[in-house]
Design a protein that fits this description.
Elements (H helix, E strand, L loop, with lengths): L2 H33 L21 E4 L3 E7 L3 H8 L8 E10 L11 E5 L5 E5 L1 H11 L7 H12 L15 E9 L13 E5 L5 E4 L2
Antiparallel strand pairs: 1-2, 2-3, 3-6, 4-5, 4-7, 5-6, 7-8
Length: about 210
């Protein structure tokens, strides 16, 4: 083989390698996108949420009553959302509202307040802001947009609906209210949690732990 032939062979081989690299570079993002088309986290369907424990805090206002229980352990958070909400400084509180009269009750003005044994206030936070904190705390910065949208949809299915009135036909309303820790630090065994419900004819107070 003369030098010209050898040089030509090397050029063909080089071009072949470059084409293979280009194909791999093109395919990698596509495969990643297809492989990550599900939710960022495996969220348990809200419809499968177990009933509140019998010892959950209760407040009866006559026409309406409340029951509530906080998710105090990482295991509970992981079981429902496959993510560590406590690491993000978030404390989810399960709330159940029961309608006890024949008259529809508006919930739009209902507000939840939480404080602990030290008197510190825990700020209620929207599910949208909670999602941003979860991703940041768990180091999730690169993701398929569809995967985030799926996670948001599944996560927000747990949000307590206060927009629609509570009626006798819809006797019981369940969902979560999420609170941000006083110093935005990871949640670690908060004590003396007291949930106050305002915006109705009279306030309700529930001692959560």
């Amino acid at each position: 083989m003369n030098s010209d032939t050898a040089t030509g062979s090397r050029r063909i081989a080089a071009r072949t390698v470059l084409r293979q690299v280009a194909r791999a570079a093109f395919a990698a993002p596509l495969l990643l996108s297809l492989g990550c088309s599900g939710s960022l986290y495996k969220v348990k369907p809200a419809s499968e949420l177990a009933r509140l424990p019998d010892n959950a805090a209760t407040a009866d206002l006559g026409a309406i009553s409340f029951r509530a229980a906080p998710l105090l352990t990482d295991e509970e958070s992981q079981e429902l959302f496959e993510s560590n909400l406590h690491l993000a400084g978030l404390l989810p509180v399960r709330v159940e509202i029961t309608h006890n009269s024949g008259v529809p009750i508006e919930l739009k003005k209902v507000r939840f307040h939480l404080h602990d044994s030290s008197g510190a206030d825990w700020k209620p936070i929207s599910f949208k802001k909670a999602i941003a904190r979860i991703l940041k705390a768990n180091g999730i910065s690169l993701y398929n947009p569809d995967s985030r949208r799926t996670f948001e949809k599944e996560f927000r299915a747990y949000e307590l609906d206060l927009k629609a009135p509570l009626t006798d036909a819809d006797r019981r309303r369940r969902g979560f209210v999420i609170f941000l820790s006083p110093k935005k630090q990871p949640v670690a065994s908060p004590r003396g949690l007291v949930l106050t419900v305002e915006g109705l004819s009279q306030p309700a107070t529930l001692n959560l732990n």
